[in-house]
Write a structure and sequence with these properties.
Helix content: 40-55%
Shape: globular
Number of helices: 13
Strand order of the largest sheet: 1-2
Structural class: mainly alpha
Largest sheet: 2 strands, antiparallel
Strand content: under 5%
Order of helices and strands: HHEEHHHHHHHHHHH
């Protein structure tokens, strides 16, 4: 997952809904972050680069009704959340961000609890989307303890089992994964006084492969552990946020070792939003994966100037970016462009928005490969 598509609003088959849920990415009362003094989101940066401004304008110009992303099955709340995160990070479209946040405020409950009209059970709950929406609210200057009519921070905690895994409660099964786990940890670390429980961090580490990267699924007996730049970039932010030195250094090392010469990253995930069409026998660079890797490297104290240069070089004339610029489909994509905004901003999910996490420099006295 990178919690990419949200659960669809309309769908005709259980399998399709289950796939969408899979990709989206202790009941104690959490102490919420203080709500902002104004309902209008404030820019997190004083200036915005022309490249970022052009990309933001493309994203805003392709929102349905100016406030959300329309997917194959209706409104896509996962991608709409990505838009909000990108706009909040760059700070270049405050009026548009206000409209997007209003839409998420009005429809967020369906994102985290599902839609019974699609066949989902009443009272369903998706772990990854809950953490992602809570983190988005924090970064956009909203109060996650009172957003979309929900106390998102408390709901995140309630989804954690005794082993530390944040699980889905759905008619279609549990599709929770390491990316959702990382979002949940980040949401609790930024939005509560107690932060994320150690047991949740320990469970995230079960998805760290021997090479130091993170897989997009939790381990199963006999299954190969395939590291992904998306999962590694997101997990690295969570590890930096909680001060997990050695695992974070190992994840950062994996990202640096798997960056392409031009600064980009290729996708290793099976995700319909990230085509794996071959170009001269190799997978093309993927903008979404590159953007998530950038967020992790920023959190890990590494320069991402090469990544920004790459993303700028593949920006289309309309300001948008394609999912895989090296493939046959070079058309701009709202989803890819929205995630590129985070990389253009040069921030991470630890530092964008109010009350950032001030993480210490990563230190590890052990070897930097393997767990």
């Amino acid at each position: 997952m990178t919690l990419r598509p949200s659960p669809p609003a309309r769908i005709g088959a259980v399998a399709a809904l289950a796939l969408a849920i899979a990709l989206v990415s202790a009941g104690c009362t959490a102490t919420p972050a203080a709500p902002p003094s104004s309902s209008t989101p404030k820019p997190t940066t004083s200036t915005i680069s022309p490249t970022a401004a052009h990309a933001a304008a493309y994203v805003v110009g392709h929102l349905k009704d100016g406030d959300h992303v329309e997917g194959k099955f209706g409104a896509d709340l996962g991608q709409t959340s990505d838009v909000a995160l990108g706009l909040a990070a760059t700070g270049g479209q405050p009026a548009a961000l206000t409209k997007v946040l209003a839409y998420l405020e009005g429809h967020g409950a369906g994102y985290v609890h599902g839609d019974p009209s699609t066949g989902e059970k009443v009272g369903a709950h998706y772990a990854g989307p809950t953490g992602k929406l809570a983190l988005m609210a924090q970064i956009a200057g909203k109060n996650p303890a009172s957003f979309a009519g929900l106390d998102l921070t408390a709901e995140v905690r309630a989804l954690m089992d005794s082993k530390g895994r944040f699980r889905d409660d759905s008619k279609f099964g549990d599709f929770s994964n390491p990316l959702g786990q990382a979002f949940d940890i980040l949401a609790l670390q930024r939005g509560t006084a107690d932060g994320a429980p150690q047991v949740a961090i320990d469970y995230l580490l079960t998805a760290q492969c021997k090479d130091g990267g993170f897989a997009e699924t939790f381990p199963k007996a006999g299954a190969k552990c395939d590291s992904s730049p998306d999962a590694t970039g997101l997990a690295l932010q969570a590890l930096v946020a909680v001060g997990a030195g050695c695992p974070a250094v190992q994840a950062r090392t994996w990202l640096m070792a798997n960056q392409q010469p031009d600064g980009s990253f290729v996708s290793s995930a099976v995700d319909p939003s990230k085509p794996a069409a071959a170009v001269s026998g190799d997978k093309p660079a993927n903008v979404n994966s590159t953007a998530y890797a950038a967020l992790g490297l920023v959190a890990g104290g590494q320069s991402t100037s090469k990544i920004v240069s790459y993303l700028s070089s593949v920006q289309n004339l309309d300001g948008g970016l394609a999912v895989s610029p090296g493939s046959s489909d070079k058309a701009s994509n709202v989803y890819a462009s929205a995630q590129a905004l985070d990389a253009f901003a040069g921030s991470s999910f630890l530092t964008a928005g109010p009350s950032p996490i001030k993480a210490a420099a990563l230190v590890c006295a052990q070897a930097t490969t393997g767990t």
